[in-house]
Amino acid sequence: MSEFFERNAQVIQRRWPALYARLLIEDTNALQADLVEGLGSTLSINGIQLTSRHDRTREARLQADSLPADSQVLHVYGTGLGDLPMDLLQRTGLERLYVHILNGAVFSLVLQLIDQQPWLSDPRVELLFAGDLPEIQLPYFALPSELVLADDFNAKIRDRLISETHLTFNNREFAPQAPEIVERLQASLKRLPTDGDVAELFGTWQGQDVFVIATGPSLELHFEALQALRNQAKRPLFICVDTAYRPLLNHGIHPDIVVSIDQRISARHLPPEGTSDIRLVYMPMVDPQVVEAWQGKRYAAYSASPMYQSLRHQLPRGQLHHGGSVIHPAVDLAVKIGAAHITLFGADFAFPGDKTHAGWGDGDLGPQLGAARHWVLDGHGQRIKTQLNFRSYLCELERYIADHPGVHFYNSSRAGAMIAGTSFHPELAV
After folding, report:
1. What gap in Å lies between CA 248 and CA 255, rounded to an integer?
2. 213 & 162 share domain
3. Rounded distance, CA 164 to CA 155, Å?
4. 17 and 98: one domain?
5. Same structural domain for residues 248 and 292?
6. How far apart are CA 283 and CA 301, in angstroms?
7. pTM for this structure?
C-alpha cells in the first residue's frame, strides 16, 4: 500500500468501516491509469480524464456554482480527485455533503495517489456507493468523467443521473406551442367526442393476470408460448404496444388491446384489417387516419404532458402514465384495469442477440444497432448494447414499478435489461 492510501484508508476505516472493506477488494490493476499534463495535470483512467488538466480548482468552482448556494444538503456523484468536495465544503451554510462513489476501483486508485484526508475527515461528509441507494438524490452534481467510468454496481444510478440531466433537452420536442403539435391535436379533437374514454376500462380486470407485450428482440423467444396461451379459454389479458402488433399478427396472435401514443405510427404498424375484436387505446398525437381506420372499439387517453393541458379542459379523458415510451402507458393501463400480476414480454431496453426489435429490420423503427454506444446489465449480469433513450425508458419503468408495490411484476426474459422491481416468471422466463 502507498503512504497516501494508508493515511486515506485510516480515515475511511474509522468513519465507514463497511465501505472500507469493500474498497479493499476493488481491482485497481484492471485500470489503465496515466498522468496527463497541460497547464496543470490530472489522471486519465482508460482514456478518460477525471478532471481538467489545466486548472482543476477553477473547474471545481464552476461545477460548485451550478448548485444552489443556500442548500444545506448537497450530493456529489463521483469522487474525481477530490476537488469538488473541497470547494463545496468551503460553504459555511453546508450541513451535509454526500459523496456517492460511481466507480470503486477508480476511487481506490485515487486514494493510493493523492491525499484525500481534508475532505474525508470533514464531519459534514458522508461517503457511500451510489448503488447503495435505489434512487438519485437532489440537488446533485455528477462528474461527467465518472458517468462514463461508472462500474456495474453503480450503473443503475448512473442511468438515472444521465436521464435526469437530459430531461429538459428531451422534452423540447413536445412543446405545446409547436405548430405540428397544435395541428395534430386540433385534428384529433374532431373525433375525440365519438370515441370512448380509457377510464371506462379502469377496474374491469380486477385481480387478474395481464401480459404486456413490447417489441424487444426477446419477444421472438415467446411467440409459440403466447400463441398457445392465447388459444386457451381462461388466460391472461393481452395488451401490446403498437409496434408489437404486426409481429404478433404474423404469428397468429391477436391481442385484446393495442396501445399507441406516437405521431409516427402509421397503417404500416397498425393495419386496420381484422381489428373489429381488438380495442385500441390511443393518445391524441396518433395519426387521425390510423385511428379512424381502426375497426374495433377505440378509447382516448391523455398523459400528464403539458401538450394535452388544453384538451384535458375541453374534453376530459382518463390519464395514463407516460415516461417517454409506449411501454409506460401500456403498463399503467394494465395496473389501472386492476391487474394483480403483470408479465412483461419484449421489454428489453437493449439489443440482445444484436437485434433492435422483434419482427422488424435494423432501423425500421428508428434505432440502428450500429449506433449503440451504451450498455446496461442483462438478466445474467452481463453488459449488453443499448442506447441512451432506452436507458431512460428503463429508469422510468423501474420508478413506476417501485411506486406500485401492490402489483407483482414479472419479466419473461433474461436476455434483455435487468428490470429492478421485477422477478423472472417461474414458467415463462427464458
Report:
1. 8
2. no
3. 14
4. yes
5. yes
6. 5
7. 0.89
